[in-house]
Write a structure and sequence with these properties.
It comes from Olsenella profusa F0195. Pathway: Pyrimidine metabolism; dUMP biosynthesis; dUMP from dCTP (dUTP route): step 2/2. The protein is mainly β. The chain contains one helix and ten strands, in the order βββββαβββββ. It has a domain of 94 residues: Deoxyuridine 5'-Triphosphate Nucleotidohydrolase, Chain A. The radius of gyration is 18 Å and the shape is globular.
C-alpha cells in the first residue's frame, strides 16, 4: 500500500469477531464482517452490526462501501452508500444493507464479509461565497448531458 500508513484504533465489542483485513495487497477497502445471522426478505433493509468500533484520526473519515461481488451475484447492497464515519464517532460500526432482489431472500451468516471500510483524508472546507463561478467547458450540464 505504499508508505502512506495511518494508525487506526479499533475495539472489538465482541471478542470473537475477526478484525477487518485487506483481501489482497494494494486493496483500498478493509473487509467488514457481520456479527450476527440475518435473513433479508426481498427489498428489505436492515442495520447489521459488525461488533467493532473505531477511532478515525482527525482529518480523516471512514467510508463503508458495498462489496461488488455480493451486489452483482446476490443483489446485496447498502441503502446509504457510502456510509460515512466521522472522526468523532465512537459507536459500533453497523452496515445498512438492502436486498435489491425482488423475489429471493438473502441470508447473511455471522462472520461473512458484507462491506468494505475505506479510510480517506478529508480536508476541512472553508466556504467562500462568490457572485459568479468560473466558466468551464461542461458548464451546467449534468445527469446524462455527456451521453448515456
Amino acid at each position: 500500500m505504499g508508505n502512506d500508513r495511518i494508525s487506526l484504533p479499533i475495539k472489538r465489542l465482541d471478542p470473537s469477531i475477526e478484525l477487518p483485513s485487506y483481501a489482497h495487497a494494494g486493496d483500498a477497502g478493509l473487509d467488514l464482517r457481520a456479527n450476527e445471522d440475518v435473513v433479508l426478505r426481498p427489498l428489505e433493509r436492515r442495520l447489521v452490526p459488525t461488533g467493532l468500533a473505531i477511532a478515525v484520526p482527525e482529518g480523516y473519515a471512514g467510508f463503508v462501501q458495498p462489496r461488488s461481488g455480493l451486489a452483482f451475484k446476490e443483489g446485496l447492497s447498502m441503502a446509504n452508500t457510502p456510509g460515512l464515519i466521522d472522526a468523532h464517532y465512537r459507536g459500533e460500526l453497523k452496515v445498512c444493507v438492502v436486498n435489491l432482489d425482488a423475489t429471493h431472500d438473502i441470508t447473511i451468516t455471522r462472520g461473512e464479509r458484507i462491506a468494505q471500510l475505506v479510510i480517506q483524508k478529508v480536508p476541512e472546507v472553508c466556504l467562500r461565497e462568490v457572485g459568479e463561478l468560473d466558466e468551464t467547458d461542461r458548464g451546467t450540464g449534468g445527469f446524462g448531458s455527456s451521453g448515456v
